[in-house]
Predict the structure.
Amino acid sequence: MADTQQVDAKAERTADKLAQRISAFSKAHGGAEGQVAYIGERGARIVLVGEDGGWGDLVAPSYEIAEKAVEKSGITAHEAFDGEFAAKVTTGAYEWKRMAGIQVGG
């Protein structure tokens, strides 16, 4: 039973740290929205989109921890990364060059 409590405490600390990072992103970008996506054994990806179009992501060790972090941060969570939510992302020259490089083997 002690092992379960220890794991829960560690998960809670991890969620708190992620929530702090999400909140900092939100503050730096005039607000934010997010989406949690399961990425297999590695955990879950939290995609963040700021009100200014800036974006970023974080990886949590589990889907449950990611959901808890998003909830603690207070941002709006979306079920999927599509539609109006995806349209809020602003891409710059770096992203376009990087995507073109991937297409041509770079």
